[in-house]
Amino acid sequence: MAPLFFSKPKLVLLLLLFLAVTGIQSIAFFNSTNTNLEKERIKLGRFLFYDTRLSYNQLKSCSSCHDPAFCFTDGYRTSAGADGYNVKRNAPSLINSVFLKKYTWADTTVHNFAEQMQFPMFNTDPKELGIKGNEKIILERFESDPFYKKQFSDCFPHQKNPINIPNIIESIAAFESVIISFDSKYDAYSKGNKSALNMAAKKGMQLFFSERLACSKCHMNVTLGKEQELYYANTGLYNVDSKNNYPSEDQGLYDKTGNEKDKGKFKIPSLRNVLLTAPYTHNGSVQTISEMIDIYASGGRAIVEGSYKGDGKLNTNKHILIKGFEISKEEKTDLIAFLGSFTDTGFLKNKMLLNPFK
Question: SS3 for 265?
Fold first, then answer.
């Protein structure tokens, strides 16, 4: 079932795009466009998002991997499922994800929250929430709770049995669609407050947009919640056995398409809150932003020993923009200062987005 956001009139879509362009922060402005029914579904989705009863063993919730305390990530290299086993990839932030056209690290067919939720809910190897095969017992938990019984009935008034998996997905998607924040220093600067950035950040901004570094050509639009052309790229993190391979357990889009040129292609992430959301890359294998810049400066990562041995800068599937560049210590400091201007924790002031059980 498609998430609530995508079924709204075009007017609402235009208003959301307006928010992205102008940086208006107030969630109340967004809510003013919603009907009371939609507001109730967002409320229901918020409770479900934070409720561990949604996992088969009641140990995990959506927020376990998308915790507001970590900018809706979890701070781990790769996330862990309900059984404690790690999944393949790092949990991306949900902030402003409603503006994306592509979801997940390496699947071009996932275009919205509802489609994305199929993976954490129903994956079995490893289990994340472990809903598959446990639907009945999970639904019974919510059916026995007076709050949920009333809330589902209010949100889906024309359904005889509204407590069901599709309605759970739709409600969570409605909540995820309002996890919106445009309250960074760069947002303020782009709206005309030229004092929002200090001198180091302004120097870093020049580097970020320069042809020499070309950071903006991949990251700027996705960071600002705008349309972009390039969504997936091989950045030269691996070149296992010097055969263009990434580790066999995760070769990116290739695992879905079987196309050799797709080996190592992963979704380009937003840089919003980038200094707060380490570790980096699809598998969390880069620990610091300084190390990440060094990899780009080298044109790829060289691994000199072990099973992943190989020089990523020689990977012929690597995107043409990952060609390496010269950068001084002072320039690197300035660049990091500018990346810090994407720090955006305004959502922490909005209780409507935080854990209702606390």
Answer: strand
What is the C-alpha separation between 140 and 197, in angstroms, rounded? Answer: 52
Domain count across the chain: 2
Residue 184 main-chain phi, psi, to 5 deg: -85, 170
Q: What is the pLDDT of residues 279-325, one digit of tens each?
A: 999 999 999 999 999 999 999 999 999 999 999 999 999 999 999 99
**Are 108 and 150 part of one and the same domain?**
yes
Residue the block writes with tokens 């990562």: 301
Q: CA–CA distance from 194 to each of 105, 201, 336 (Å)?
A: 35, 11, 18
Kindly state whether residue 191 falls inside one of the protein's structural domains.
Answer: no
The residue length of the chain stands at 358
Same domain flag for 12 and 110: yes
172 and 306, same structural domain? no
Helix residue ranges per DSSP H, 66-112: none
Find the domain containing 67 and state its range: 4-181+347-353
pTM, whole model, 2 decimals?
0.89
- Report pLDDT digits (tens) over 121-145: 999 988 999 999 999 999 999 999 9
* Residue 294 maps to a domain: yes
CA pair distance 9, 16, nearest whole angstrom: 11
